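User: I'm putting together a teaching handout on how multi-component assemblies are represented. Below are the sequence lines for each component of a complex, exactly as they appear in our records. Could you produce the 3D structure of the whole assembly as structure tokens, so the students can see both representations side by side? Please keep the chain order the same as the input.
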Amino acid sequence: GAVVSQHPSWVICKSGTSVKIECRSLDFQATTMFWYRQFPKQSLMLMATSNEGSKATYEQGVEKDKFLINHASLTLSTLTVTSAHPEDSSFYICSAVMYSYEQYFGPGTRLTVT
Amino acid sequence: KQEVTQIPAALSVPEGENLVLNCSFTDSAIYNLQWFRQDPGKGLTSLLLIQSSQREQTSGRLNASLDKSSGRSTLYIAASQPGDSATYLCAVRPVWPDSWGKLQFGAGTQVVVTP
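Assistant: Of course. Below is the structure of the complete assembly, with chains in the same order as your input.
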């Protein structure tokens, strides 16, 4: 149990376009999901906290207009990178919280912006 | 502000040796501490979770200790195998209600076990 999926696992897009990444909790309902980004050889940095049915809370320094988060249901949260630029290239990982408050992580999405 | 540090940043050992990975944190007001494994280009796999009231947790060849008062945790991996090669991350979760649910990660220790 407690499986979290992400789609796509890898995406390449051109500079200026938008990309949507999905995070799903497959076998449990998640009232809260977290979005992280990870640069090569670095650790995970929390970007935002996503609560079902409400606006996401962004960490300091994260542009909310650039990284749009929608948590429309208890099993799905989406991250849309708008007007992507090469510096947005990174590894994006989501996690979902079950009732025990333990976070379960997705497999990640590799974004490359050319 | 909580800071999590992992030493060493990288470690290479021959197969069969025991691994000792260290994690330190500056604020002892934690709810729990978790150790993860990350393979290249992959997500995180949870290895062990230690509640703040616990001193250690064990799973197979893995043992993690927690000394909350001194702000330290150690992950021991016995009889290392090449399949243990990965990056190991520790993360702390603050107590309620501060930063509810948010994990603060260390930078990780990259481990290579040579055959």
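A couple of points students might notice: Chain A is about 0% helix and 55% strand. The interface with chain B takes residues 6, 32, 34, 42-46, 49, 91, 93, 97, 101-108, 110 of chain A (CB under 8 Å).
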